[in-house]
Specification:
This protein is α/β, with parallel strands linked by helices. It has two domains: 5-141 and 280-352, Rossmann fold (3-Layer(aba) Sandwich); 143-272 and 358-382, Response regulator (Rossmann fold), CATH 3.40.50. It is 40% helix and 23% strand. The protein has twelve helices and 15 strands. The protein has helices spanning 5-15, 39-56, 77-89, 102-115, 143-156, 170-185, 204-212, 226-237, 255-261, 281-293, 301-320, 326-333; strands spanning 25-32, 59-60, 63-71, 95-98, 119-121, 136-138, 161-167, 189-196, 217-221, 246-249, 269-272, 337-340, 343-347, 354-365, 371-382. The strands form two sheets. Strands 7, 8, 9, 10, 11, 12, 13, 14 and 15 form a nine-stranded mixed beta sheet that branches. Strands 2-3-1-4-5-6 form a six-stranded mixed beta sheet, sandwiched between helices. α2 packs across α10 (281-293), α3 packs parallel to α4 (102-115) and α11 (301-320) crosses α12. The longest helix is centred in the last third of the chain and has 20 residues, at 301-320. The chain starts with a helix and ends in a 7-residue tail after the last strand. The model is unreliable at 13-19 (pLDDT under 50).
């Protein structure tokens, strides 16, 4: 379905029928991959939302919260607009959520601006997303937020030269630019910046190129999913680890792939806002609830983004007392803070993205012999370093 002036007008009319009556059910439309190569996101989103509802109930002050899932299998802006419109007009959702990929989030911004639908970003990590609409709230992270701390760690640990390898799309460019600016401003040398097509599957030539430049480290960013696994494997297979090149990244050692990577992942260093091994009672309870429902469930950044996203939606419903009041809903979560499985969490009142800890992590084996992202340092209360008003 094409988004035309007529259909947008229909959306506006539909969404503007705001009433003071309390709804029996609040509907939340979740756009996420449920099929295809990135379907792990959909599974993790749904598992985490189920975990949140198991812990906190399926209603807020008598108003039931219902989540409706739509399959958005990859970066597809036209499909994102169509599904968002379907959810708003046909399904009558009060909130939207999900959004793994930045292009999809950008694509729905005009629609949610017209329809005034609060939309919670569970994953997409380009800083500029929340500038596109006052109705966006993000519960994941941004690439500058985690890239700048990694650059600072590198400089503090005698890493003087780096080659960057990133996927060539919004988040990858965000990661590259923020890392390079911070690293070079503090005296480091970026030997070369390499951007890899988003659909790359063979990373051997890129690793060979990086290795030939003899850097102290590489800094990488790829979207989660099969390409990330292949990239980390290529780092090991092409001898960079044995050559003493330090691997620096963010989510590249994500928990879904970690055990499969095996010994090739040992010692890899990443800076990120969550590890399944995070040492807190809140995280242990979160992981236990996930695994009680599905013994094979794995907690990573995608699941914690959805879990905290559910919390934000519950708080918006609570603040509006089950009524349709999108502006009041967004205002209610500006500056909201709570204890997340990731640690202290706050939604910045201006740019509506998290202020949170970034943990430096090293892949190690725990007492049970499993690989974990062990948090060995913390950079507290990191803002979105890419936010420019």
């Amino acid at each position: 379905m094409k988004v035309t002036k007529t259909t947008i007008a229909t959306v506006i009319l539909s969404s503007s029928l705001i009433t003071t009556a309390v709804a029996d059910t609040i509907k939340v439309g979740v756009l996420t991959p449920m099929s295809g190569p990135f379907s792990d996101y959909g599974q993790q989103f749904s598992q985490a939302i189920e975990a949140y509802q198991t812990q906190h109930g399926r209603s807020v002050n008598g108003t039931e919260i219902e989540f409706i899932y739509k399959d958005l299998s990859g970066p597809n802006p036209a499909r994102a607009r169509s599904l968002a419109q379907e959810l708003i007009v046909r399904d009558g959702v009060d909130y939207l959520a999900g959004f793994v990929f930045t292009p999809n989030a950008f694509a729905v911004a005009p629609l949610i601006n017209q329809a005034k639908v609060p939309t919670v970003i569970f994953n997409a990590a380009t800083s500029a997303i929340t500038k596109e609409s006052d109705y966006f709230v993000r519960t994941s992270y941004t690439l500058p937020q985690v890239s700048v701390p990694v650059a600072r760690y590198a400089l503090d640990n005698d890493i003087e030269s780096v080659v960057t390898l990133v996927s060539d799309y919004g988040p990858g460019i965000d990661a590259e630019v923020s890392f390079v600016e911070e690293f070079e401003a503090k005296g480091g040398t970026v030997v070369e910046t390499i951007r890899m097509p988003l659909d790359s599957t063979d990373f051997g030539p890129y690793m060979q190129r990086a290795g030939s430049l003899n850097p102290d480290a590489i800094y990488a960013f790829l979207p989660g999913g099969p390409p990330t696994y292949s990239f980390v494997q290529a780092f090991s297979d092409n001898g960079l680890k044995e050559a003493g090149v330090t691997f620096l990244g963010t989510a590249e050692t994500q928990e879904l792939d970690l055990q499969t990577l095996g010994d090739s992942a040992l010692g890899l260093v990443t800076g990120f806002h969550y590890s399944e091994a995070h040492d807190s009672e809140t995280n242990r309870a979160f992981v236990k609830t996930l695994k009680d429902a599905d013994a094979d469930a794995v907690a990573n950044w995608a699941s914690v983004g959805a879990y905290d996203g559910a919390h934000v939606i519950y708080e918006m419903v609570r603040a509006t007392e089950g009524r349709k009041d999108p502006d009041a809903a967004i205002d209610a979560v500006r500056g909201l803070s709570w204890e997340s499985p990731r640690g202290p969490m706050e939604i910045d009142a201006t740019y509506r993205s998290p202020i949170q800890n970034v943990y430096m992590r090293r892949v190690e084996r725990n007492d049970e012999g499993n690989l974990v992202n062990f948090e060995f340092d913390v950079l507290s209360d990191q803002p979105d370093h890419g936010w420019n008003p």
